[in-house]
Design a protein that fits this description.
Rossmann fold; homodimer; 5-stranded parallel β-sheet; alpha/beta
């Protein structure tokens, strides 16, 4: 499961400042990897999320944390890049197909930057917190997509073609429920009060408690049977 | 070869302002596509290249031309992102492996943005001017890489998974020599004086004539047996 030999090896880990990616960082660290935490600034990224990602990188003693600007504005987008309303109340993970919060090719763009950084760092493991249970509506959260990206990475990089290295795109949460993710993180010592999930925080960065992302988070803690450390601006949950 | 039915269909075409991508735009246009030209601004991108890409988009009557900022600075890089010297004289396409001008995961990042834009535009063809003959040292210019990216795209996007659309990554130059590329473009009416290839232009944007990219270009025109319309700052070619 861990680094291929007993040396301390590095891994690039995508970090949104949220619950899932923070759990992934904990998993990667528990496997003995030196962490290189990578976050993205794009349309929807509130400063509060990036601040959370920074705190979390520090919490895990990451060797580096980088924020890459992803320029999607000129290409149009989805609710999360500021062109549509983020839905309230209704779960975004509707059974009726792919959510409106889907951002075209988002994970492909994110993983591409992660791949570039991994190659520069000479590390071969990339961790991503995709999940095909809670986010079954997103095509780029499914195992077959992750496997296809990995295959492409191993054909398109110098490290793989010239040096015979094999990149691995690792998605340890891909088949976990939210409750399982939370239990995994707590067992590894994650402080979830550092994380941020809300799509629509107030000016002080407090979670609304009502958006799809807050609801998934709250339900997860409830199902895990543990207390949610989040301070929500509402107590009247829909 | 052209759009799937007789309607006028769109295609995203990557445009660097250089000879190869300009030829690709000509090929796509000759196949009946409405062109959406996409360029990238990153470390090495001189303003002169982006100005060329704009001219070329206009020349072909593209429906739109977008420039996306690609943020590689924080992730380290290669000669072309400003961290190393661009080699002079020696061909970069050395037989001894992958050139120092290789940029980690570059085409993967570029194609990812193209995929995002294609999905927003609801078009399914993406044209890229990769070439596995003159650039055999680059892993991300090989047919097997392009095929793997296409497969990944068709697993990771809403358009493919929900609507059954098939993205196609089209690389019409992939097995052409530089001379064949130039002859193809001239047959399609390309004005190569609009294009820019030099890695190291003077302040007025004139090509040096000596860098690897200029040498490949000059050799291509020579081998094609046609006059190179480029104005070089030197007449003493190595």
């Amino acid at each position: 499961m861990g680094p291929a030999d007993n040396e301390k090896k590095g891994a690039v880990a995508l970090s949104s400042g949220g619950l899932d990616s923070t759990t992934v960082l904990a998993v990667a660290k528990s496997l003995g990897y030196t962490l290189y935490s990578l976050s993205f600034r794009y349309g929807q990224r509130h400063a509060v999320e990036l601040a959370a990602a920074r705190r979390i990188a520090r919490f895990f003693g990451a060797a580096a944390h980088r924020i890459v600007n992803v320029d999607l504005a000129g290409l149009g987008g989805s609710a999360l890049t500021g062109h549509m309303e983020v839905p309230k109340g209704d779960r975004e993970t509707a059974d009726e197909g792919i959510p409106v919060t889907y951002v075209p090719a988002r994970n492909t763009i994110f993983l591409s930057y992660a791949l570039a950084w991994a190659e520069v760092l000479d590390v071969r493991d990339i961790f991503i917190g995709v999940n095909s249970i809670d986010y079954s509506g997103y095509p780029d959260c499914r195992p077959e997509y992750i496997a296809a990206f990995e295959r492409m990475a191993n054909l398109g990089t110098r490290m793989a073609v010239e040096k015979g290295a094999r990149f691995r795109i690792r998605s340890p949460l891909i088949e976990m429920t939210k409750a399982q993710i939370i239990r995994t993180g707590l067992a590894l010592g994650v402080d979830y009060s550092l994380t941020h999930s809300c799509y629509d925080p107030d000016p002080e960065g407090r979670a609304c408690g009502r958006c799809a992302s807050c609801r998934i988070r709250r339900d997860g803690f409830e199902q895990a049977g543990v207390e949610d450390p989040t301070i929500y601006t509402t107590k009247e949950f829909p």
